């Protein structure tokens, strides 16, 4: 009987973990779907740009509406001259606002 209770507990813990991982993945996918055309993101080590609702490789440096420049190597030069480097999941919206994957705003 104790083994059955222990096994049930283990199964419940595992299913809760899988469920939370799945929910987090779905939330990240929805965020990516909401990106506007002109947004750029570091994705799997490559700079990508949202064009017509699809992610395509960034082939040339891009200047955002506020003057922020995004380079094809992931370097971002803010309008005040500050340089930053994007990590996987970080993005820059068309208005030049930078968002980190782990944070809401930067």
Question: What do these coordinates show?
Answer:
It is a single chain. This protein is an alpha+beta fold and 106 residues long. The chain folds into 2 domains: 1-34; 36-106, no CATH class. Helix content is 30%, strand content 26%. The chain contains 1 helix and 9 strands. It has one helix at residues 2-33; strands at residues 40-43, 46-51, 54-57, 62-63, 69-70, 75-77, 83-85, 91-92, 98-99. Strands 3-2-1-8-9 form a 5-stranded antiparallel beta sheet, with no helix packed on it. Strands 4-5-6-7 form a 4-stranded antiparallel beta sheet, with no helix packed on it. The radius of gyration is 19 Å and the shape is elongated. It starts with a helix and ends in a 7-residue tail after the last strand. The mean pLDDT is 81.
């Amino acid at each position: 009987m104790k083994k059955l209770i222990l096994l049930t507990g283990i199964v419940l813990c595992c299913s809760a973990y899988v469920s939370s991982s799945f929910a987090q993945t779905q939330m990240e996918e929805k965020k990516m779907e909401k990106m506007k055309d002109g947004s750029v993101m570091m994705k799997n080590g490559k700079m990508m740009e949202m064009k017509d609702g699809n992610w395509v490789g960034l082939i040339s440096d891009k200047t955002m509406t506020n003057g922020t420049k995004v380079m094809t190597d992931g370097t971002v030069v803010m309008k005040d001259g500050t340089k930053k480097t994007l990590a996987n999941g970080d993005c820059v919206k068309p208005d030049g606002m930078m968002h980190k994957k782990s944070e809401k705003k930067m």
